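Changelog excerpt

This revision adds worked examples to the README so contributors can see how folded entries look when concatenated. The first example is reproduced verbatim below.
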Amino acid sequence: MSELQGHCMCGAVTVSMTPARPALGACHCDMCRRWTSSALMTIPAAPGYAALGPVKTYVSSDWAERAFCADCGSALWYRITAPGKMHGQVQMAAGLFDNAGGTKLGLELYIDRKPKGYAFAGEHRQMTEADVMAAFRPAAEEGKS
């Protein structure tokens, strides 16, 4: 896929990235819904993305951080910080890019946490909270409840 260029709501942060896969992801976890007031829609970024401007990060869990524009508050990305095979993986906010970079929905995370008031159409993979934790939980957390 070709490189995407985008920006936050106020234009203070500009981003460039090449999608790792041509598919949108949607996360319905409690944190993403509180952060965006809906599902966080993302595009997986290949290594080498760039962001210029007043970027702030927030450590939102033991294994991830979220980035946002310090001026307007726009969501920028979600990044895995825990050691392991997922370390450094970035999910860029799809709203930064015109027409969400032309991608289609491929995955919904935390489908069992999604509010009943809306649903996304079409065929795509869905993962429950248990599925997500089994797939993405840091190795240090395995075996703990």
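The second example, added in the same revision:
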Amino acid sequence: MDFVAVTESFDTGRLLPFIPPSAPTDVGTWQKRTKAWKRHAGTDPTTFDRWQALMGFVDVRNALQHGLGRLTDQQLRHREQLLGQVQAAGVNLNGDRLTVTQVDAERCYRTCTDYIRFLDALCPSA
């Protein structure tokens, strides 16, 4: 799910030119970047038609990276929101363990590349 890491880096790279040098640049989470997009670029990345699926793939990536395929303690604190996002991504969750297939990885790739195209169309001058 390295597609998610590339997408996150792209999202941050597209956002930073909109943030004035005197403004705080805390963009370390998707939630903080979303707020910064709205505040500094006057746009809302959550209007991407598969935003929930994208966030689901972020959750899946984090569970794979930090929980070895299981939801982490931090993720479990927001279980209801996470369940909706993982369901939107279409990844199977059995209890707290994810089962990721090749089809899921391909869907993640398409979602991430479509989001990058969405950002390019949303802010072509960045």
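Reviewer comment on example two: The chain has a mean pLDDT of 92. The chain is about 65% helix and 5% strand.
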